[in-house]
Amino acid sequence: MPFSFRAALHGPTLAGILALSLGLTPTWAAEVVVRVPGAEDLADGVRGASLSQTAVDEGRTAPQDLIAAARADYRRVLAALYEQGYFDAEVNIRVDGREAANLSALNAPTQVGQIEIAVIPGPRFAFGRAEVTPLPQGVRPIEGFATGAPAGTAIMRDAANGGVNAWRNVGHAKAEVASQDIVADHAANTVSARFGIAPGPRLTFGRARVSPDSADSAVRPDRIRAIAGVPEGRTYSPEEITRAERRLRRTGAFRAANITEDEAIGPGNTLGTEISVEDAKPRRFGAGAEISTVEGLRLSGFWLHRNAFGGAERLRFDAEVAGIGGQTGGIDYSLGATLTRPAFRHPDAQLSYGVLLEREDEPTYLSDRFHIFAGVERILDDKTTVTGEIGFRAARTKDPFGTRNFRHVLLNAGGVWDNRDSTTNPTTGAYVEIDLMPFIGVSGSASGVRATTDVRGYLPLGDSVVLAGRTQLGSLMGASIASTPPDFLFFSGGGGTVRGQGYQSLGVGTGPGRTGGRSFAALSAELRTDITDKIGAVAFVDYGYVAASSTFDGGQWHGGAGLGIRYQTGLGPIRADIAMPVTGGGNSVNLYVGIGQSF
User: Which SS3 state, helix, strand or coil, does residue 59 take?
Assistant: First the structure.
């Protein structure tokens, strides 16, 4: 959007003169000197706008290049000053003492030693009048665009764009700036600015199309449209476009996904859209490793197909071996497969089917399990996700109560609310997860309900220190300890609960008869600080509680504390924690290593 102001300017005002290379590049280096008497805070902005400074920083020393850059800098420096509201500035640019406007790149000297940019900014202007009209009911111009506030082309541009976006947000997709009236009063050092907005008609979404360039996608066009979920017939909203693009990318089937609005308004004040996608590589595999002196070595791997049947279905196989060389009983194994279909009855819902085989060899029990399930995940907004699942599980266990078989129908319901700034290294925000699992016994197995919560919060204390806290709660109701699968019961101790204490060292009872409890609580606090850009340090304390009752009565506490170090990588911080018990007995020192913060 053009703006016109009067300003004192020495030299030509055409930006960009073709520099001809007429010989070898000199070996000497020029320097750029910026002088802004009385307003040194503007110097960085002047340097940032200067092509001369850019040329010197890039090592371009040819005199023709430097003179062309210096001549172009008159208009660029003035534009930078206008951004800040200095509309009566004077700019002089001298190349080795000679005004750049009087030099020609076609007849350049043999070398350039110094380019001096001298600015007399003059007074800073304020708004005498600031108006964007019309605006939707209840909408006001952006903050800072008001009579008496500092003026500048940047705030004017933002105010005009803000007026257009206000109309777009209420369905007027083709709103535009129809007029502008900008007058600078140099005697009063004020600017009068008025922008007239043409809202255009209120539009509804028409049918979305898949672009011809995306016809070779391995995902079927009908599934692309279903996943995007552009709401045909509903009032236009730019946020709906953003959400549709996010849904497409979230499937993992596409390397890129973009939705563009039609230039022309369709019949009945409708607005068509066009979806463009670029497929990602269909197959992917990965592996991971985690080690601690308590839990031992954990190895995991997966294989993934992002588009198994042409509808962006994800087919994933996972395998894991854990407890290698640890103090957790024996070695655990698991093998699972999951098929996920996006856009199940709603663009923000997905249907998953899965099967899991696993063996868990823990200090107090051995369990072999088969689990088959189907579930739906629904994303309510950017922070909130809810899930529902039904499944069948068969387990054979050996524990202090003997060798037993369990058969259960599982009904899971849960939700996650997450507004953290990062999943691997959060510094602000909170995370809340709630899970409720009724289990219905079959063939003589007992029924009950298992409920858990996990709440985490992060508070920055300055630029480089974060206080992190976590609370975990769990309760099992309706079934006794003796009639409950041992992996449904609660233990405390180890990397996920209380570092420094032995793995699952706190339960109910002692010795060969020890089992898990029916209620559980864990509290953790960490003070995290950055030492350098890559290295951080952590001090932490953890406490855990387990009781035989489902109401948290009559249980026991234990605690651990320690120090850790973090090394930042592109995948998240590499974590190494050393911890020891502080209550509950024991004097061992334990090491935990992994990727990402502990919570």
Answer: coil
Task: Tally Cβ neighbours within 10 Å of residue 214.
Answer: 20
Q: Judge contact between 584 and 558, C-beta under 8 A.
A: yes
Instruction: Specify the pLDDT at position 28.
Output: 55
Question: In angstroms, rounded to a whole number, what is the distance separating the alpha carbons of residues 542 and 502?
Answer: 13
CA 66/CA 43 separation, integer angstroms: 20
Q: Residue 510 — very low, low, confident or very high, per pLDDT cuts 50/70/90?
A: confident
CB hemisphere CA count around 33 (13 angstroms): 13
Strands ordered across the beta sheet of 190-198: 126-133, 190-198, 176-185
Q: How far apart are CA 101 and CA 93, in angstroms?
A: 8
Tell me if residue 338 falls in helix, strand or coil: strand
| CA–CA distance, 89 with 71 (Å, rounded to integer) | 17
Question: How buried is residue 181: exposed, middle or buried, by Cβ count under 10 Å (0-12/13-18/19+)?
Answer: exposed
The 3-state DSSP class for residue 335 equals strand
- Three-state DSSP state, 375: strand
Lookup: tokens for 421: 């700034």
Query: What DSSP assignment string belongs to 290-324?
Result: EEETTTEEEEEEEEEES-SSSS--EEEEEEEEEEE
Q: For residue 134, is the peptide bond before it cis, meaning its omega torsion is within 30 degrees of 0?
A: yes
Q: Which residues contact 383 (CB under 8 A, 6 or more apart)?
A: 417, 418, 419
Taking only the tens place, the pLDDT of each residue in 344-366 is 999 999 999 999 999 999 989 99
Do 177 and 168 meet the contact criterion of CB atoms below 8 Å apart?
no
Q: Report the phi/psi class of residue 482: left, alpha or beta, with left for phi > 0 and alpha for psi in -120 to 50.
A: alpha
Q: Within 13 Å and on the Cβ side, how many CA atoms surround 479?
A: 26
- Residue 208: phi and psi, rounded to 5, are -80, 145
Q: What percent of the chain has pLDDT over 90?
A: 82
> Closest Cα partner for 515 from 541, 558, 482, 544?
482
Q: Are 395 and 428 in contact (CB under 8 A)?
A: no
Rounded Cα–Cα distance for residues 20 and 245 (Å): 46
The whole-angstrom separation of Cα 534 and Cα 541 is 24
Contact, 17 vs 71, CB < 8 A? Answer: yes
Residue 427 is classified by DSSP as: -
Q: Are 564 and 537 in contact (CB under 8 A)?
A: yes
DSSP 532: S
**pTM of full prediction above 0.85:** no
3-class state of residue 133 by DSSP: strand
Helix or strand holding residue 112 (H, E): none
What whole-number distance in Å separates Cα of residue 457 and Cα of residue 420? 8
**Do residues 221 and 201 lie in contact, with contact meaning Cβ atoms separated by under 8 Å?**
no
Closest CA to 356 of 375, 371, 338: 371
Backbone angles phi, psi at 488, to 5 degrees: -85, -20
